[in-house]
Design brief:
heterodimer; A: 628 residues; alpha/beta; 24 strands; B: 382 residues; 8-stranded mixed beta sheet; 3-stranded antiparallel beta sheet; globular
Chain lengths: 628, 382
C-alpha cells in the first residue's frame, strides 16, 4: 500500500505535439475530475497551425487543468505537474514549472534527433539540468506499444495510444474514477473496434503500471469541493453560449437563425447549433462574415431570432450591417468571441481588445447594448439576457466572450429550463395610428413610451405592410426623411433607448468585506468579462495577507449599471485589469471623470493571478504609505 | 409576327408548359400555369389590383428614368400572382433602383450597398410563406455585392432578383460601373475606363443559376412575361433588365429600343424554336461544330436547318452561357433577350427547412432540450 497524500488543489499541464491528443487527454481528465466532484478550471492552449512540423516548438499543444476541493477561480498560473510527451513540450513549458515540480516525460521521444530539433545539446532528462524538479522519465511509447501488441496495429497507430497510457497513469496517481473515460472511448471508437480496444487497453495499462511500479512512492487525493446542491456538468463557454441561445429562442418562440462564417475561436458555436436543428434552429454557413450577419438580420426582419457568431476580424466586416440593424431597430445577437489582434493576430490566443470596436465601430451615432460573460458557464445567462434585451428594445446586442472562456471549462449547475421565464416578442398585430382621414394605419417607428422600442410587425401580418431601411426615417411614420430636426430627434431617441435599458440592469454589488476593525477597502479592483476568475482569486490572496481590497465586476458595458459612478467615486483608487491597453479604463474616465488605474496585460493568455495579487498589494501599500 | 411578338407568345407558352407537376399550394397563373416559386405563400382572399401595390410614398426618380417603367410593370403584374400582399417582401441594396421597395405597398427593406441578396437569403430561408424579391443594380449586385449574388445563385435560394442594369453609377453621379464598356469616359475615368465589363447573364450562368433571363425596361409586355416565368420558377431567378439612365448614360440601349434598329439588334430566345431574327428574319444563330461557339449568320448563307434551336431546360449551363456570349461587351448593338435557362433544382431554403422539420421529428419539447443541456456526464451534489 502506497502512501496517500491529501491535497486541496493540483494543477496539471499535459503538453505534447499537436497530433499527440493532448486536448483530448486534458478533456478526459477534466471530465473525470468534475464527475468526481472537484471544482475545475481549464486552459487549453494550442497553435493556430493544425499540424506544425512534428517535434518542433511551434507545434506544441497543451492543456492545463486546475482541480480542487474548494471553489477555484482560474486554471492556475503555474502547473504542479508537467506531462511532456516530447522534448519540444518540455522546452516550451519548463519555464512555467515551479522548482520542485513534477515532470513526467516520455523518454522514448527524447532521441538525439528530437533533442537537436529544439536545440538541446544533451538530454535534459539525464544531464542533471532538471535536478531542481522531480523527474519521472518513463518509456510511455514503448510500454503502450507493448500493451496494445495483441491488436496488430501499425507502430504508428499503436504509439498514438500513448496519450491514453499517460492518462491512465495520471488517473491512478490522483485517484480519478476511470469509468467515464472507458465509456467515452467505447462510444468514440465504436466503429473502429481495434482502435477502441487499443485505447482502452493503453488506458488500463497506464493505470496498472502506476499500481505496480516503484517509481511513485506517493499518490494524491483531492477531495470533492463543496458546491450548492444540484445536478452539475462541466461546460465550456462556447457550449454554454449555444445552449443559452437555443433556450432563449424557445422561451421567446422566435426560431433561431444563425448566419455565420467559420472563424477561430467562434466556430464551435456554429458547430454546436448545427446539431440542434430539432429545436427549430437554422444554421446558415454564409459565403463571408457580411452575408452571415446579413442573412441573420433578414431572418430577424422575418420574425426569427437572428444571431451571428464571430471574432474580432469578423465584427469589422459586419459593422455596416450592424449599423443597419441599429437603424432598422430589429433584434439581432452578435457574439464576438474575442481573440488576440490586430488583424489576424493570434487566432487561438485570448484578448479583450474588441470592447471599443463593438461600442463605437460603426459610422454615425450607432449605439447598441454590450454584455460580457465572465466565465464559461456564465455564457448561458448572458445569452439569455442579451436576447431579452434585443427583443424588448428592438435592438442589436453584442455578447462579448473570448478565447479563454470559449474553450475553457468549469462545473455548471444545470438550470431547470422550466424555471426560466418566457420572453414575449410582442409583435404588432393591429394598426397603431390613424391617418388624416381617420383610417387605421401602421406606423413602424411609433414607440413604446416606457422602453422607446418601436412597433415590430413581421411579414405575413395583414394591414401592417411597411418599409424600413438604413436611410433616415421620419419619426413614427418611418417615411424617408432628410429633415434636420427629425434627424436630430431620431439620433437622440436611438441613444436614449439604449441608455434607458439601464432600468432593467441590476445595480452593481461590490464585494468589500470589512476587516476586524470594521474598516473597508480604499482600493477597488474592477473588471469585465473573462478577467473575473483571476481578479477574484487575486483579491482572495490579497485579503489573506490582511490587506483590504474591494472587487466588482461588470457584465453590462453599455449601458453601465446606474450606480457605477457612485461606486467609482467612493474609493480612493480604482484599478481596472484588462487584457487590452485600457479600453474599459478609457470609457470609465470619459464617462465618470475618475482617474482609474489601468492594468494591462496582452500576452494572449489570461492575466496571472499571482502577478496581479502582487501588483494589487503594491498599490494598496503605496496608497496606505506602508510601502516597505 | 415580329421577333418581339414571338417572344411574348413564347413567354406565355413557357409558364404554362412547366415540365413538373403543379406543386400543392402553388398559386395558379391566369393561363393555368403553376407559380411554383410561390408554393407555400398564402393566397389573397380578395383580388388585388395595381393600386394595392402602390405605397403612399412619392416616387423620386429622375424624369424619364427607366425605373418608372419597371415599377409600373411590377405593380401591374403583382396582382396576377394572387398572393397576399403582406406575404411579399422586397429587399433592395443601395442605388437609384434600390429605392423601389418604398414605392410598393408590401413589406420591404432598403438595406445597404451590395447586401440585399444576403439579407433576402435570410428572409427566404426563414419563411416559406413569403415571396421574396431582390431589387438591385449593376453596381450593387455586380461590384460591391458580387460575392453575395453568385453565392445566392449557386445555392439556388428561392428569390426573384431584378437586376436593373443601366451600365453606370447613377446615384453617385456618373462613374463607370462593372457593366460599362471599356473606354467609357466618366467623371472617374476622364481618359476612358480600363476594365473589362461583366456580362451579368454570363456571370449568373457561370454560377449555374437555375433561371436566367434578360428583358428591357421599355417593353412592358416582355418584362411582364419574364416576371411571370420567374415567378413560375422555384429557386433563384436572375432577371437582368436593360434600364436607361437618361442623366448619366442616356441611350445606352438605343440600338435595341429604336424601332428602326431593334429587329436586327434583339436576338429573341424562344424555347423550342430556332433562333432567328432581323428584318424579315434574315439573321439567325448558328453553332460551330468544332468549338461550340455561337455566332450570328445571314440565314441566306447557311441552311435553315443550321439554325440553333433554343433549349432553356438543358441541365448543362454551357449552352445558355454560349448564347449569352452573343451580347456585345462594348457599346451595345446586339443582345439576346428572353429566358436563357430555366431548369429544376432543389432550393437551398426548401432543403434547409426540410432538415429542420426532419430533425424536429426527434422530439423538440422543453424536456428534450433539458436532456440535451444535461449532457452525458453529470454529477449530483446533495
Amino acid at each position: 500500500m502506497k502512501h496517500v497524500n491529501t491535497l486541496d488543489r493540483v494543477v496539471i499541464r499535459f503538453a505534447g505535439d499537436s497530433g499527440d491528443g493532448m486536448q483530448l487527454t486534458g478533456d478526459r481528465f477534466t471530465s473525470d475530475s468534475a464527475v468526481f466532484g472537484n471544482d475545475i478550471s481549464t486552459l487549453p492552449n494550442f497553435p493556430a497551425e493544425i499540424r506544425a512540423p512534428a517535434g518542433t516548438l511551434p507545434g506544441v499543444s497543451s492543456f492545463q487543468l486546475h482541480f480542487a476541493n474548494y471553489d477555484i477561480m482560474t486554471p492556475g498560473d503555474r502547473p504542479d505537474v508537467l506531462v511532456a510527451m516530447n522534448p519540444a513540450a518540455l522546452k516550451a513549458n519548463i519555464s512555467d514549472l515551479p522548482r520542485g515540480g513534477v515532470i513526467i516525460a516520455d523518454s522514448a521521444d527524447f532521441t538525439k534527433r528530437n533533442l537537436s530539433k529544439v536545440g538541446y545539446d544533451s538530454d535534459p532528462l539525464t544531464d542533471g539540468s532538471l535536478d531542481n524538479y522531480q523527474v519521472h522519465a518513463l518509456d510511455l511509447s514503448g510500454m503502450t506499444v507493448a500493451a496494445v501488441k495483441p491488436f496488430g496495429l501499425t507502430r504508428k497507430d499503436a504509439t498514438r495510444a500513448k496519450n491514453m497510457f499517460a492518462l491512465g497513469l495520471l488517473s491512478w496517481l490522483y485517484h480519478r474514477p476511470t469509468e467515464g473515460t472507458i465509456n467515452f472511448l467505447t462510444t468514440k471508437f465504436a466503429s473502429k473496434p481495434d482502435i477502441r480496444d487499443a485505447n482502452i487497453t493503453a488506458f488500463n495499462a497506464g493505470y496498472a503500471f502506476g499500481e505496480t511500479t516503484e517509481v511513485f512512492a506517493v499518490t494524491y487525493e483531492v477531495g470533492p469541493a463543496p458546491m450548492p446542491a444540484g445536478r452539475y456538468r462541466q461546460i465550456s463557454g462556447n457550449l454554454a453560449l449555444a445552449y443559452g441561445l437555443i433556450t432563449a429562442s424557445r422561451k421567446s418562440g422566435l426560431p433561431l437563425f444563425l448566419g455565420a462564417y467559420p472563424i477561430t475561436p467562434a466556430s464551435d458555436v456554429l458547430h454546436e447549433l448545427s446539431k440542434h436543428k430539432r429545436f427549430g434552429v437554422t444554421t446558415f454557413q454564409a459565403e463571408d462574415e457580411i452575408a452571415g450577419v446579413g442573412a441573420a438580420l433578414g431572418a430577424s426582419f422575418a420574425g426569427h431570432l437572428g444571431v451571428t457568431t464571430t471574432s474580432g476580424p469578423g465584427v469589422v466586416l459586419k459593422s455596416e450591417t450592424i449599423g443597419l440593424a441599429v437603424a432598422t431597430e430589429l433584434p439581432l445577437i452578435i457574439c464576438d468571441i474575442q481573440r488576440a489582434g490586430p488583424s489576424t493576430g493570434m487566432p487561438t490566443k485570448t484578448e479583450q481588445a474588441d470592447l471599443l470596436q463593438v461600442m463605437f465601430g460603426r459610422n454615425g451615432e450607432a449605439p447598441l447594448p454590450v454584455l460580457a460573460a465572465q466565465s464559461p458557464a456564465d455564457c448561458f445567462p448572458t445569452a439569455l439576457e442579451a436576447v431579452q434585451i434585443a427583443i424588448k428594445y428592438r435592438t442589436p446586442v453584442v455578447i462579448l466572450s473570448d478565447g479563454y472562456i470559449a474553450n475553457g471549462a468549469e462545473p455548471w449547475l444545470i438550470p431547470d429550463l422550466h424555471t426560466i421565464p418566457a420572453i414575449d416578442p410582442e409583435f404588432a398585430s393591429a394598426s397603431n395610428a390613424t391617418d388624416k382621414a381617420g383610417e387605421p394605419i401602421f406606423m413602424p417607428y411609433l414607440r413604446d413610451p416606457q422602453t422607446l422600442a418601436r412597433a415590430w410587425a413581421i411579414p405575413g401580418t395583414g394591414g401592417l405592410e411597411h418599409r424600413i431601411g438604413g436611410i433616415e426615417k421620419a419619426k413614427d411614420t418611418g417615411a424617408v426623411s432628410y429633415d434636420p430636426a427629425n434627424h436630430e430627434e431620431m439620433v437622440r431617441t436611438r441613444q436614449a433607448k439604449i441608455n434607458g435599458i439601464v432600468q432593467d440592469i441590476p445595480n452593481l454589488i461590490v464585494d468589500d468585506p470589512a476587516n476586524a476593525d470594521g474598516r473597508h477597502a480604499r482600493v477597488l479592483v474592477l473588471g469585465w468579462g473573462s478577467t473575473y476568475g483571476p481578479i477574484v482569486a487575486a483579491a482572495r490572496r490579497v485579503r489573506k495577507t490582511g490587506r483590504l481590497i474591494a472587487h466588482t465586476h461588470l457584465r453590462h458595458l453599455n449601458p453601465f449599471p446606474a450606480n457605477l459612478g457612485d461606486i467609482l467615486h467612493s474609493y480612493d483608487r480604482v484599478i481596472v485589469p484588462e487584457m487590452n491597453l485600457g479600453q474599459l479604463a478609457l470609457l470609465l474616465r470619459a464617462k465618470y471623470l475618475v482617474d482609474v488605474h489601468s492594468y494591462s496585460r496582452v500576452r494572449g493568455l489570461p492575466i496571472s493571478l499571482s502577478e496581479l495579487a502582487r501588483d494589487l498589494e503594491a498599490e494598496i501599500d503605496q496608497l496606505e504609505g506602508t510601502n516597505p | 409576327m415580329t421577333a418581339v411578338d414571338q417572344l411574348h407568345s413564347e413567354l406565355d407558352h413557357h409558364s404554362s408548359n412547366q415540365e413538373t407537376a403543379h406543386m400543392p399550394g402553388s398559386p395558379l397563373a391566369p393561363n393555368g400555369a403553376s407559380y411554383r416559386g410561390l408554393a407555400g405563400v398564402p393566397l389573397s382572399l380578395e383580388p388585388l389590383n395595381r393600386k394595392d401595390f402602390t405605397s403612399d410614398q412619392e416616387v423620386r426618380w429622375c424624369p424619364g428614368c427607366g425605373d418608372y417603367a419597371v415599377l409600373a410593370a411590377f405593380q401591374g403584374f403583382m396582382p396576377e400572382l394572387g398572393i397576399k400582399r403582406e406575404n411579399t417582401v422586397i429587399v433592395s441594396g443601395i442605388g437609384c433602383s434600390s429605392r423601389f421597395p418604398y414605392y410598393v405597398d408590401t413589406y420591404g427593406m432598403h438595406s445597404i450597398h451590395g447586401r440585399a441578396t444576403a439579407i433576402a437569403t435570410g428572409v427566404a430561408t426563414a419563411r416559406e410563406d413569403v415571396a421574396v424579391f431582390v431589387i438591385t443594380g449593376d453596381g450593387d449586385a455586380l461590384s460591391i455585392g458580387g460575392n453575395h449574388l453568385i453565392h445566392a445563385l449557386r445555392r439556388n435560394v428561392n428569390l426573384t432578383i431584378l437586376l436593373f442594369n443601366n451600365r453606370i453609377y447613377g446615384l453617385t453621379k456618373g462613374q463607370y460601373s462593372p457593366t460599362s464598356e471599356i473606354g467609357k469616359i466618366t467623371k472617374s475615368t476622364p481618359m476612358g475606363s480600363l476594365d473589362n465589363p461583366f456580362n451579368p447573364v454570363s456571370l449568373a450562368l457561370g454560377a449555374e443559376a437555375t433561371f436566367v433571363a434578360r428583358t428591357i425596361d421599355s417593353d412592358r409586355k416582355h418584362l411582364t412575361g419574364v416576371l411571370r416565368a420567374a415567378a413560375a420558377h422555384r429557386g433563384s431567378s436572375l432577371v437582368e433588365i436593360y434600364q436607361n439612365c437618361p442623366i448619366f448614360n442616356d441611350g445606352a440601349f438605343d440600338a435595341i429600343k429604336d424601332p428602326a434598329t431593334s429587329a436586327d439588334a434583339i436576338i429573341p430566345l424562344n424555347h423550342g424554336e430556332p433562333i432567328r431574327f432581323g428584318v424579315d428574319g434574315h439573321l439567325g444563330v448558328v453553332r460551330d461544330r468544332t468549338t461550340g461557339a455561337f455566332s450570328v449568320a445571314e440565314v441566306a448563307d447557311v441552311s435553315e436547318d443550321a439554325l440553333v434551336v433554343h433549349d432553356a431546360h438543358l441541365q448543362d449551363p454551357s449552352f445558355a452561357f454560349g448564347l449569352s456570349r452573343l451580347t456585345d461587351a462594348g457599346v451595345l448593338h446586339r443582345a439576346p433577350i428572353g429566358v436563357f435557362r430555366d431548369v429544376e433544382a432543389p432550393t437551398y431554403d426548401d432543403q434547409a427547412r426540410h432538415q429542420v422539420a426532419l430533425a424536429a421529428s426527434l422530439g423538440n419539447d422543453d424536456d428534450a432540450l433539458q436532456s440535451v443541456i444535461n449532457g452525458g456526464d453529470t454529477w449530483t451534489v446533495s
